[in-house]
Amino acid sequence: MELQATYGQFKAKGAELAAVSMDDVTGAAQMAGLAQAQYFILADPYGAVARSYGVYNLLGDKVATPAVFIISARGNVLWRYIGQNAGDRPSPQEILEALDSLRDK
């Protein structure tokens, strides 16, 4: 819900948000509804995306570790935050600051 509350700030910086859930399509849709998300929440029930970004089962729980990636329009990872536990996520403000720091480069 924090991301939804700051979604306009991301859009104002020319960024787009997308979340990836290891739930099936129904579960991802329910999550989008609960969060009242205007951004995409994508279903990845087999963990293909989590595996490709190297965040699957890092905590030994057979799910994706909380992580945030800033990806360029060309598909390059410019910034990443990998959680150290299930509740470890950067704040929207930290992500916005990372976006700002990347603009200066």
Describe the model:
The protein is an alpha+beta fold and 105 residues long. It has one domain: Glutaredoxin (3-Layer(aba) Sandwich). Helix content is 36%, strand content 18%. Strands 1-2 form a two-stranded parallel sheet. The termini are far apart. The model has no long low-confidence stretch (mean pLDDT 94).
CATH architecture, please?
3-Layer(aba) Sandwich
What global shape is seen? globular
How confident overall, as mean pLDDT? 94
Order of helices and strands: HHEHEHEEH
- Rg, rounded, reads 14 Å
User: How far from one another are the termini?
Assistant: 30 Å
Unreliable runs, pLDDT <50, ≥5 residues? none
Beta percentage is: 15-25%
Under CATH, the topology is which?
Glutaredoxin
Strand order of the largest sheet: 1-2
Q: Considering DSSP H and I runs of 4 or more, what fraction of the residues is helical? A: 25-40%
Number of domains: 1
> Which structural category do the helix and sheet elements fall into?
alpha+beta
CATH class: Alpha Beta
Please identify which CATH superfamily we are dealing with.
Answer: Glutaredoxin
| Count of beta strands | 4
Number of helical elements: 5
Largest sheet: 2 strands, parallel
Offer a concise description of the structure.
This protein has helices at 2-5, 7-12, 25-35, 48-52, 92-103, and strands at residues 18-21, 40-43, 67-71, 77-82. It has 105 residues and is α+β, with helices and mostly antiparallel strands. A two-stranded parallel sheet has the order 1-2. It has a two-stranded antiparallel sheet with strand order 3-4.
